[in-house]
Amino acid sequence: MGVVIAFEGGSERPTANLDALVALTAADMTLVNEFILEKAQSHVELIPELAGHLINSGGKRIRPMLTLAAARMCGYSGSHHIKLAMAVEFMHTATLLHDDVVDESDMRRGKQAARIIWGNQASVLVGDYLLGQAFKMMVETGSLDCLRILSEAACTIAEGEVLQLAVSQDTSTTEDSYLKVVGAKTAALFSAAARVGGVIAGQPRNAQEALESFGRNLGIAFQLVDDALDYSGKQADLGKSVGDDFRERKITLPVVLSFRRGTTEERNFWKRTMEEGNQTDDDLIYATKLMERHGALADTSDRARHYGALACDALAIFPESEWKAALLESVAFCISRAH
After folding, report:
1. Which pairs from 75-78 meet CB under 8 Å and 24+ separation?
2. CB 307 within 8 A of CB 224
3. How much is the pTM?
4. Is 10 within the bounds of a domain?
5. First CA to last CA across the chain, in angstroms?
6. To the nearest 5 percent, what fractions of the chain are helix, strand and coil?
7. Domain-located, residue 9
8. 11 pLDDT exceeds 50?
9. Residue 99 and residue 250: Cα distance in Å, rounded?
């Protein structure tokens, strides 16, 4: 059973959701969550306190669900996928703690960022602790391939952070350069999360690579939708603040496209607000108007749909099942958030 990814201009609003994926992985996720609570403990009180602030702050936990669903789709019936899913979630949580320090973010998932409450040093060190716990879980599975894949992902994510620093607040950033950042910072963990599910299930290389492709393209689509949402009224509907990327002077794809397509006067606006950091109260509204004028938000969504289609195609080699259908639906859900 396939899933059609909705395009703009359709007569019906997208109805895609994560219900099927959540329901199918519910029992496994209960075990994952128990593991998370257990492994976030420490005799150093600040560690569980700070980690729990972010772990319990919501989040869909789509990355560990990808690991669980991929393993189950491939017929896995053991228990090591639970440890791998926990490792994936701890890696993700650690990167969020580190990201907020690097980006000097004040908010995370509608709450004060951990660094605002406990400080930058504590946030970085607790992130390191969670990474250490993640690698302990990988070792416990006994799979060197899984350890290699997730270790490589950790390195790639760090490279993506450094690469983002290189292009940060630089309006001359190209689309290719930005996609390299997305591929490293976001897609690498999606990709690894999906692939290790196939690895622990003993799947052949072609199946593992298909899962890797699925995760990578889903991750890129996911980030591009987030880029568009940050300048969209839909973001407010989801209970999130609009314009955080703009205020933090992040060069995302809508900015890249708007700058490239703009007039000299418009480019000077982007240089003033993003490079120089000279922003006024009305600048976010004007930035959004420029994006609409040049089709930057629509084209960012179009690119997200393209990568979403690639993700769906990657699963074509797997037989039809409720697990495959749920993974396909997760792609449709990702894209539908932009509408």
Report:
1. 75/201, 76/197, 76/200, 76/201, 76/202, 78/200
2. yes
3. 0.93
4. no
5. 23
6. 75, 0, 25
7. no
8. no
9. 12
Please return the burial class of 19, using the count of CB atoms within 10 Å of its CB with bins 0-12, 13-18 and 19+: exposed
Only one residue has tokens 């228990």, namely: 79
Nearest to 50 by CA among 138, 143, 115: 115
Span 299-327, average pLDDT: 98
Report the sign of the C-alpha dihedral through residues 248, 159, 214, 61, in that order. Answer: negative
Task: Decide: residue 10, CB within 10 A, 0-12 exposed, 13-18 middle, 19+ buried.
Answer: exposed
What domain range includes position 34?
A: 19-336
Question: pLDDT-derived band of residue 5, with 50, 70 and 90 as boundaries?
Answer: very low
pLDDT of residue 173 exceeding 80: yes
* Residue 77 within any structural domain of the chain: yes
Average pLDDT, integer, range 113-124: 96
Stretch 9-29: mean pLDDT:
80
Residues near 330 by beta carbon (within 8 Å), at least 6 away in sequence: 18, 21, 62, 65, 66, 218
